[in-house]
Amino acid sequence: MTLTSSLRSPSLTVYNALMVKAVDLTGQTFGRLTVEERAPNRYGHAYWTCTCTCGATTTAQGTGLLGGKHKSCGCLKRERITAQATKHGGKPQTGATPTYTSWANMLRRCENPDNPRYPGWGGRGITVCERWHDFAAFREDMGERPPRMTLERKDNNGPYDADNCMWAPSVVQARNKRSAKLTPEVILRIRDLAEAGGGVKEIAAATGVDRHSVGTVMATIAVLS
To answer: In angstroms, what CA-CA distances link 28 with 3, 34, 37, 61, 87?
Structure first.
């Protein structure tokens, strides 16, 4: 079957037909990575099995290798993060600070295909802004992570950047995963209504959130204020 006939066949997508002419990267070296063989496609993209100079084996997207995005199994980035965090006081000898942990976990789930949480973040297009690849810049924008708070995006389909992120109470974020009602915007509205003197019943009616969740948010905000 020719490429032209393949493109006309309803049994093959244009993407699969074009993959016939995919560049074979086997044996090529990109940074610390040497391509060993083709790996199964992920998320509609061609992936390759690579060996890193540190001895680890990893998979990387072909366009990422060719574009210079993937240069190691992750060891190069870890080395840079450790050096950077130590320089800026983010990772003292006693261990990572809460702010550093949130920052590092954000990068792992968005940019490391081998991370178990990658499919739900980087795998579906969630990105980290270029500025936030610098820990010092992230901390400058967000401040230190308050107790019992986690990094939350206001728009669940948007990127990690200063305009779309906030520190949210852990209990609220946990409920957010079970119910779409408690968005960051709704949480802020509950706070504003509570500060204006509203009670649980009135706030629940105004926001459409159940009373128990409203009470939990108000109690958490009171503890943190």
So the answer is: 26, 6, 10, 14, 34
Q: Which phi and psi angles does 25 have, rounded to 5°?
A: -95, 0
Residue 27 and residue 181: Cα distance in Å, rounded? 51
Tokens encoding 105: 């976990």
173 or 104, higher pLDDT: 104
Could you give the dihedral angle defined by the CA atoms of residues 203, 208, 209 and 212, in that order, rounded to the nearest 10 degrees?
Answer: 60
Q: Say which residues have a Cβ less than 8 Å from residue 184's Cβ, sequence separation at least 6.
A: 152, 153, 154, 166, 168
Band (pLDDT 50/70/90 cuts) for residue 165 is: very high
Per-residue pLDDT band at 149 (split at 50, 70, 90): confident
DSSP assignment letter at 145: P
Structural domain boundaries in the chain: 3-72, 74-145, 146-225
